[in-house]
Specification:
alpha+beta; 4-stranded mixed β-sheet; 3-stranded antiparallel β-sheet
């Protein structure tokens, strides 16, 4: 799309800075923000970093414009809007979750393979997390070899995204994760069911390699993850998508384009961010990568509903993800410590599931200690 934009605007040159991981991108973002220099003209910001943008609102341009009024769902726009009404980010995508699964591995385990039957297997519209783990037990009992799902911390994160308040108190900013009974239940359940996991951490090289080695059969998959699966599992057949998710709907992820006041070309930067997040461009992005449009017009389009994906057995991913997005009821509150708290939480599960160096209780105690250092 950047190439297309430069053809439309030959007077503009766009240099695309890319980072290997989200952590590297965030580190550069924080360092440059603090130094007062080094940020690009347009900066992509993960939704989990938006609290930092809000806290440093004076360092970002207000992107409010009649051209973008009504472009996004209210909850999506609210995340990037200051108390005094300044819009600091244009939403690029959202992450409604579905269940991605290997139909061939399900068949070997004696489970249904048709996506509608698989949705019912997981509980259909009334699916619960208990149903999810029960299917995992059935899959494991078949003894065919692969693990049920890839990563315990990702299952926990998906589950946690269904709660509005889990990590911090929205009224006073206090960190409540250590005493939150819902979070402790998620942690205890996932660590006690760890034998269903492949014991690998998402985004690690082992995880990337696992797609080619039939290491697991199921992934809780935000829309943007479908593109990742296709890339890592290139040449592997059997992947499909079921229109179901435990506990109902959940949005995980999504990003924004911001224009920092460090920019030497703010008007040109704003125009690029506007164009990249317009409905037409986001439909192209969805077809290419699975990034589900954040724009209302794109979400309602017939073009989106008709999108299928040959890699996922021609699954009607446009319709499935539209249904999953419509099922979202809660948007998690993310305060200034959200990124640090969730990193510590994921590391706590990793010590139990991936490194296997600590018991569940030992690792939870370490998590609580880390929380105290955050405030």
């Amino acid at each position: 799309m950047i190439d297309e934009y430069q053809k439309l605007h030959p007077e503009i040159t766009v240099k695309h800075n890319r980072f290997a991981t989200s952590d590297e991108a965030k580190e550069q973002f924080q360092t440059s923000l603090g130094a007062g220099s080094g940020l690009a003209d347009v900066v992509g910001v993960d939704n989990s970093w938006m609290p930092q943008v809000m806290q440093n609102s004076e360092n970002f341009f207000d992107l409010s414009s009649s051209n973008v009024e009504g472009r996004w769902n209210d909850w999506n726009e609210k995340i990037a809007t200051t108390y005094d009404g300044k819009l600091l980010g244009y939403a690029t995508d959202i992450g409604p979750q579905s269940i991605a699964y290997r139909a061939d591995l399900f068949k070997a385990a004696g489970l249904p393979t048709d996506r509608e039957e698989v949705a019912e297997l997981f509980g259909g519209k009334d699916a619960t997390w208990d149903d999810f783990f029960k299917v995992g037990e059935k899959f494991k009992a078949a003894g065919t070899g692969p693990a049920f799902y890839d990563d315990s911390s990702s299952v926990a994160t998906s589950w946690g995204d269904q709660y509005r308040v889990l990590w911090e108190d929205p009224d006073n900013g206090d960190i409540i994760a250590g005493n939150n009974k819902d979070l402790r239940n998620i942690y205890d359940t996932v660590t006690s069911q760890d034998d269903l996991s492949a014991h690998i951490a998402r985004w690690s090289q082992d995880w990337v390699d696992a797609f080619q080695k039939d290491k697991f059969a199921v992934m809780p998959a935000p829309s943007w993850m479908l593109g990742v699966i296709k890339g890592n599992a290139a040449g592997v057949t059997g992947w499909d998508v079921a229109n179901v998710f435990p506990g109902g709907g959940v949005n995980s992820g999504g990003s924004y384009l911001t224009v920092p006041k460090q920019s030497q070309h703010p008007e040109e930067a704003k125009a690029l961010a506007d164009w990249l997040t317009a409905p037409e461009q986001q439909l192209k992005a969805f077809k290419a990568t699975g990034n589900f449009p954040s724009q209302v017009q794109a979400q309602k389009s017939d073009e989106l509903q008709q999108v299928t994906d040959p890699f996922f057995n021609n699954a009607p991913v446009g319709k499935i993800l539209t249904d999953r997005a419509a099922a979202v009821n809660e948007i998690p509150y993310k305060g200034e410590n959200y990124f640090a708290i969730t990193t510590a939480f994921n590391n706590a599960i990793k010590r139990v599931s991936v490194d296997r160096t600590h018991s569940a209780q030992e690792s939870w105690d370490m998590f609580e200690t880390e929380l105290k250092t955050l405030g």
